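Sequence in, structure out. Go.
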Amino acid sequence: MTMKKRDALNMTEKMAREWLTKRGVTIEDIAKLVLFLQKKYHPNLQLEECIQNVEAVLGKREVQNAILTGIQLDVLAEQGKLEEPLQSIIQTDEGLYGVDEILAFSIVNVYGSIGFTNYGYIDKIKPGILEYLNDKSSGKVNTFLDDIVGAIAAAASSRLAHRAGNSDETIDS
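Output:
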């Protein structure tokens, strides 16, 4: 891989992380969701291990692309810069608009089908940071971001579950 290509990859991850932070989401917020999802199955699980799994998920290029795409659409909707009817659909997080979930599925898919179960569950009950992101009274549009954060947590939970299930194997991704 050329230096220029590696720098572009690093820039994508750096920007994805920065945009999450700008929108009020920390790695620890997502890791707390992972802990919430996995504590029942791994009673000795610590937040630090959850953070490591979130970090690994954020290192995936397809995850970074989903973050950048979703947040950009949220920001444009917040600024009123989308054409109708898309502007209203995203701004109000219309119930029958499923593109935000489809984008989230691209993240969930990274670590297998167990992620779908985790994602569906966490998307339904919206604990922690997801409750904050779904609060429409702030004026912020997080139509994509709430699903992206839930999907990152679900993918990290899946990664953790796979690694625990294959503890005798080495898994690098």
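Check: Confidence is low (pLDDT under 50) at residues 168-173. Residues 77 and 86 are 8 Å apart (CA to CA).
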